[in-house]
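BACKBONE GEOMETRY TOKENS:
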Amino acid sequence: LPTQVVEALTRVYAECLSPLYQVDTHGVVPCWVASDKLETAARTLRPKLMELVKEFATPFPKVQRMTVPWTHTKLFPLDEDRILSELKPDPPEPLDSWKPGTKAALELLHSFATPKNLAEYGKSRNDPVAGVQSDLSPYIHFGHISVQRCLLEVSKLKSTAADKTLKEGVMSFIDEVVVRSQLSDNFVFFNPHYDDIKGAPLWAQQTLNIHAKDKREPHYGFAALEAGKTYDELWNAAQLQLVRDGKMHGYLRMYWAKKILEWTKSPQEALKIAIALNDKYHLDGTDPNGVTGCMWSICGVHDQGFKERPVFGKIRYMNYPGCERKFDVKAFVRKFPGAAENAVNVAKQGMLPFTGRAKIELKGVAEGGDSDRVASILTKKIEQQKPQNTISGPATTKETAQTKGSAKKRQRKQSDGDLAPPRNEGVDVEEADVNAEEDVHLSE
């Protein structure tokens, strides 16, 4: 459990003079066994974790019939209608597209864990249009199925994976469901500020504070963001997917959170809104994966520094054209009616990040035809008119020498925030490959 939850429960049980025992079955290896410290990246956790997985990922023993008679038919009254009615002011809407329970989870796992599906997963897992994710994370979150069960099932294909794409799919899924998940567990267990800017690495805190007062235009409040009413049709579609389906594609979770940083008045507000929307609408909300994903996107947790730019500082940047190079953005937007229309309506109302002539021109674009065609033109034009130059120029000779001189230091394991990551001076952050092995922070 996250440290804040454990501390709160400890106080409650202390008043009752009752002991509290924590048993970790959220992953395969208990997080305090997997590591005894806060890890800085997947690469530092992976080797020792995967060695321990060999010991812990054993077949489940058969359930034994209970020999002691059970006399209690009900432990406590459960009035679901009353409980839901007390969740005010926002009782959750039912999601008929999801079937709960272990039986449903096992059916989903078995339908996913086939050579064909895992090969497709290996090729297209970061494509929101392809629809190849396992969708197991809500079931794992609520304990309807365990990570260990998923690992054992998918691993059956590992030994027979002669096809390179299938092997990549198997290994990618294992890395996501085991390593990435346990990296998130590690973060919320060892970092008491896991949902606050103070929980970010030192370099990220510094760069976010430096740019905290940078001008944000436009500025969207919680209500507009919750309704998916921004000038960005892709962001709107991602938000509508979250609200309507109870789950947003993992790749888009990164884009979604980074845009919230771009459009809100401060990093603190961005993080607060992102976590609130994540916890309210994601079926796997409140999971360590969710909050860690928000911290990755907004606060640079488990990531590295990039060239400096307004608002983001050295935090990795993502934009609409970059997503277009990764997948068919329009095909995804069309899946969620209202996303493009909302973008055009926002532009017609003049809620755009420009003034004067540029604003008039963009409003004219918004008036110029059907929403499906206009929304993408509008979003691209807005992205093009934003200042694209980064603040820091190319590395000087002195900086290059310092970088080379400190390369060996950076190769050593670092305590969180002790040393700023490499700045990637030669990398255009719009081109940064978030598919790279150490970059993704998705959720199955």
Remarks:
- Residues 392-433, 435-440 have pLDDT under 50 and may be disordered.
